[in-house]
From TrEMBL:
SUPFAM superfamilies: MetI-like. Pfam families: BPD_transp_1 (PF00528). Its main location: membrane. InterPro entries: ABC_transporter_permease, MetI-like, MetI-like_sf. Keywords: Cell membrane, Membrane, Sugar transport, Transmembrane, Transmembrane helix, Transport. The chain crosses the membrane at residues 16-35, 47-67, 98-119, 202-222. Belongs to the binding-protein-dependent transport system permease family. The keyword Transmembrane helix applies. This is ABC-type sugar transport system permease subunit. Residues 10-223 form the ABC transmembrane type-1 domain. It is a multi-pass membrane protein. Gene3D superfamilies: MetI-like (1.10.3720.10).
């Protein structure tokens, strides 16, 4: 309770979750809607969107590190120079590094989230869409009154899995930032790793693991209360 670095690690993990969960769900749903819309070469796009999921995280992290290199040689800084923005430090900036790591995780797992949503879209009865079109409903209204509510079980599943994944984030911080700069990317799992396997303080690492478990449990129960209940949308 008196370890300020442990509290910082927990707060960093919470911020990472805020950067990660909703964008991952939103991007996965958008990609699923694209391939479910009947666009040509849908199978090809499905493979392209899913490719990061089956690619080694080390390779993805290496590419991400090159893209967000904090010099003019970095690809993102090179592109920003065309619109007059000075080179950003990104992974070396304590206010930007965590968001960059969240972007890496979103890019990595959005393809799997897409598959979950795509399966949910395929299970929706097409007669509902036909009836809505006959009644003159717009595409936007059809989405918000039919598609989005009927995907509630998928929302719940994806919210649970992304939340658990966000609180277990370790590999991107380990590979790209080493918990820095100034502990800005030290998450609770990374801090647990340092305590247990670097400092060999195994008992304290065990305490941190219990803290992590209870945080995930409480958040999962809250999500179950609001997203996991059965509802009749017809």
């Amino acid at each position: 309770m008196t370890d300020s670095l442990a509290w910082k690690a927990i707060w960093n993990t919470v911020k990472f979750s805020a950067y990660y969960i909703v964008p991952t769900m939103g991007l996965g749903l958008i990609l699923a809607l694209i391939i479910n819309s009947g666009v040509k070469s849908a199978g090809f796009f499905k493979g392209i969107f899913f490719l990061p999921v089956v690619t080694s995280f080390v390779i993805i992290a290496g590419i991400w590190g090159w893209l967000f290199r904090g010099t003019e040689a970095g690809m993102i800084n090179y592109l920003l120079s065309f619109i007059g923005i000075e080179p950003q430090l990104f992974l070396s900036n304590s206010s930007q590094a965590l968001a960059v790591l969240a972007g890496l995780s979103i890019f990595k797992v959005a393809g799997s989230t897409m598959i979950y949503y795509f399966a949910g879209l395929q299970s929706i009865d097409r007669q509902l869409y036909e009836a809505a079109r006959i009644d003159g409903a717009s595409s936007f209204k059809i989405f918000w009154t039919i598609t989005f509510p009927l995907l509630k079980p998928i929302h719940f599943f994806v919210a649970i899995t992304t939340t658990i994944g966000s609180f277990q984030i370790f590999d991107s911080a380990y590979l790209l930032t080493g918990g820095g700069p100034n502990y800005a990317t030290t998450t609770i799992v990374y801090y647990l790793y340092e305590q247990g396997f670097t400092s060999l303080n195994l008992s304290y690492a065990a305490v941190l693991s219990y803290v992590l478990f209870f945080i995930i449990l409480v958040i999962s129960l809250i999500q179950r209360k609001y997203l996991g209940q059965e509802s009749n949308n017809y």
